[in-house]
Amino acid sequence: MAYQKVLIAGKWRNSKTPVCFNAVNPANKQSLPEMYPVSGQDDVNEVISAGKQAAVELRTAPREKFAQFLESFADRIETNADALVEIAHLETALPKEPRLRNGELPRTTDQLRKAAKAARELSWCHATIETSVNIRSKMGPLDGPVSVFGPNNFPFAFNSISGGDFAAAIAAGNPVIAKANTCHPGTTFIFARLAFEAVKETGLHPATVQMIYRTPPDLGLKLVSHPYIGASAFTGSKKAGLRLKAAADKAGKPIYLEMSSVNPVFILPGAIEERSDDIAAELFGSCALGAGQFCTNPGLIILQKGDRSEQFIHTLTEAFDSNRPGILLSSTGLEGITEAVEILKSAGAALITGGKKVEDEGYVFANTLLRVDGKTFISNPQELQTEAFGAASLIVVADDIQQTKEVASVIEGNLTGCIYSHTKGKDDKAYTILESELRTKVGRLLNDKVPTGVAVVSSMNHGGPYPATGHPGFTAVGLPASMLRFTALYCYDNVRPNRLPIELQDKNPTGTMWRLIDGEWTKRDV
Q1: 3-state class of 26 per DSSP?
Q2: What separation in angstroms does the CA of 121 have from each of 132, 214, 221?
Q3: Is 319 within 8 Å of 284 (Cβ atoms)?
Q4: Which of 226, 273, 344, 459 has the fewest CB within 10 Å, making it most exposed?
Q5: Parallel, antiparallel, or unpaired: how do β-strands 515-517 and 520-522 relate?
Q6: Between β-strands 209-212 and 176-179, what pairing exists: parallel, antiparallel or unpaired?
Q7: One-character DSSP codes across 28-91
Q8: What do you get for the CA distance between the two ends of the chain, in Å?
Q9: Distance CA 274, CA 253 (A)
Q10: DSSP labels for 357-382?
């Protein structure tokens, strides 16, 4: 039986395990013809060993080479856009236009080029020099490869071998072991082919990028816990993420996770009074975007009781009822949202609309709204924050601003939190009360806009407290900050000038690099 090759140690070769799988087209539930291998123990051992060898060599590679690789890779992606869009559409049912071609693909190449710029400019390494004691430090690459586990909902921008985690790890000087997502192996294969071409063109170590498609669960754990692994990045379900985290933590290995987020949206009374219909339209658009399969999808909507709030709920319900639900990415996603809605109902939430699978050619679940009162939510916050990954949201109706604050106080860590308020200041007092509670619960706080969409800018935080991520101090989007996840702090005490890395020598290596010299951020030479 013919199946696709894996990329290990600078070679495309057959997997040493004969077990295979097919991708499935979510739009019609039909298996796609190409076969992909499930890598076993031999493949995993070899990919980790080769990654370790690459990490050793890459420590001394010129930083310029990493920038050249990232730019070459971005160019090749654009040249092969048609093939990438076609296979990603078949494997995910995401629209070719505008989603894949005009949205996600340009974002992918943009973040690769921004990573290249950061790698070349060098300020990301936080070079720090204290001349009075001749101690100098900087951030540098890890001592082993970074394993990247990509999600199913962004086949380009978060792909394990083209996405933000990949770009950040490479820009920081690390090799990457990409574990393809089972939902889009063909898309990942094309990216891997293009990345390897760019590796050869720029002369980096052949194992700078490696890729396998799928492993048994126990070997996935090995990819985050092996002694040779430098760090890992995972985007996906809380259940899978926590298993990987437990294995990595036990081995003392860094792991950065994006797992679960209901992204609470608080709508204060003045905003409801002022622009109820507009907010309802915005919220539905955000909830339904991509069939609700965004990590920043608003799964929790908090209002204060009153006639206007009831009218808002009615308007939002009409939008959920009258619009056709989108196609989910997989059968697993369909089962997951079905189970989540049942958990919410058993915890006290009342179904307003939807709540069931739709008989359709593809994987479809009805647009779903549920509601619960503030007292019930506060008494059972864990189950009532179950993430229903799709176009499904729970409305919490609180008695007043004080109970709204109590709701915020029991909310788990989230990627985002939003507050809609009156534009002329009518809600300012309530906003102050609420914001003080919400601020520490979310990575990104928004005002008067929906949370879906993550801008690739240096100030972006795509992270947050647990269980949104495994660590509240890091971001998966926003360069150069996202690079710091994949670095170690190198300190040099009284090291002779000619032995120092160029970033710490007296002369500024680029003339534009920012360094902290004797407590002052500057571009000058020592």
Answers
A1: coil
A2: 27, 36, 35
A3: yes
A4: 459
A5: antiparallel
A6: parallel
A7: TTEEEEEEEEB--HHHHHHHHHHHHHHHHHHTTS-HHHHHHHHHHHHHHHHHTHHHHHHHHHHH
A8: 63
A9: 51
A10: B--SSS-BB--EEEEEEHHHHHHSTT
Concerning whether 20 is annotated as a catalytic residue, the answer is no
How many other C-beta atoms lie within 10 A of the C-beta of residue 93?
20
Domain topology for 264-447: Aldehyde Dehydrogenase; Chain A, domain 2 (3.40.309)
Q: Which of 295, 406, 412, 503 is catalytic?
A: 295
For residue 20, give the DSSP letter.
E
Q: Using alpha carbons only, what angle is made at residue 226 by residues 225 and 230, rounded to the nearest 5 degrees?
A: 80
Cβ pair 151, 164 in contact under 8 A: no
Question: Which entry of 71, 91, 104, 258 is annotated as an active-site residue?
Answer: 258
- Amino acid at site 237: S
Whether the Cβ atoms of residue 222 and residue 44 lie closer than 8 Å to each other: yes
Write down the residue that tokens 């979310």 correspond to.
442
Integer Cα distance of 328 and 289 in angstroms: 11
pLDDT reported for residue 1: 56
Q: Which residues of 269-391 form beta strands (DSSP E)?
A: 300-304, 350-353, 368-373
Residues of the chain with pLDDT under 50: none
**Residue 233: how many CB atoms within 10 A of its CB?**
29
Active site residue 437: no
Each domain of the chain, given as residue ranges in start order, spans 35-124+142-259+474-484, 264-447
Which two structure tokens, joined as six digits, stand for 425?
Answer: 């200041």
The separation between CA 378 and the C-alpha centre of its own chain, rounded to angstroms, equals 29
